[in-house]
From TrEMBL:
Keywords: Acetylation, Actin-binding, Coiled coil, Muscle protein. PANTHER family: TROPONIN I, TROPONIN I, SLOW SKELETAL MUSCLE. One of its GO terms (molecular function) is actin binding. Residues 27-79 form a coiled coil. One of its GO terms (cellular component) is troponin complex. One of its GO terms (biological process) is ventricular cardiac muscle tissue morphogenesis. This is Troponin I, slow skeletal muscle isoform X1. Pfam families: Troponin (PF00992). Belongs to the troponin I family. The gene is TNNI1.
Length: 187
């Protein structure tokens, strides 16, 4: 019974219109977020850095202002360097801790593997490509062997083992063993 394809409830033109509306809305949100970031940045800079008034200052006052600014820049650079060093240290520590966690768990996580049955011919084709011409039907090359029933040929005699040992001792016992081994094949 072939499957019947279901028709979409939304037409292609409606889908296209909805997609364009979603993209327009996303663009508006992105632009608004960008403007908010810029406004936050301007507000932060206005708060942290007062405007410089250099008009009407003498040469020595300008030099003092430059020295103050250089000192502030050095402090900010030291803070930035310290923060970067802490950040690098923290990332290294996080990486080391992740490795320790993996080591403590034991083995690394292995993906679940599925058992795939591949014939010898398919495996050789995959490994060698088109060079593979020989068939590897291993079962056809095996010889068929009939299972012989050895128990039916030799009846098992249960008796006193001491009598058997006494009978087989000496040269006469060896002759009996030799004759017994010879007789089943001659029948």
């Amino acid at each position: 019974m072939p499957e019947v394809e279901r028709k979409s409830k939304i037409t292609a033109s409606r889908k296209l219109m909805l997609k364009s509306l979603m993209l327009a809305k996303a663009k508006e949100c992105w632009e608004q977020e960008h403007e908010e970031r810029e406004a936050e940045k301007a507000r932060y800079l206005a708060e942290r850095i007062p405007t410089l008034q250099t008009r009407g200052l003498s040469l020595s006052a300008l030099q003092d202002l430059c020295r103050e600014l250089h000192a502030k820049v050095e402090v900010v650079d030291e803070e930035r360097y310290d923060i970067e060093a802490k950040c690098l240290h923290n990332t290294r520590e996080i990486k080391d801790l992740k490795l320790k966690v993996l080591d403590l768990r034991g083995k690394f996580k292995r993906p679940p593997l599925r058992r795939v049955r591949v014939s010898a011919d398919a495996m050789l084709r995959a490994l060698l490509g088109s060079k593979h011409k020989v068939s590897m039907d291993l079962r056809a090359n095996l010889k068929s062997v009939k299972k012989e029933d050895t128990e039916k040929e030799r009846p098992v005699e249960v008796g006193d083992w001491r009598k058997n040992v006494e009978a087989m001792s000496g040269m006469e016992g060896r002759k009996k063993m030799f004759d017994a081994a010879k007789s089943p094949t001659s029948q």
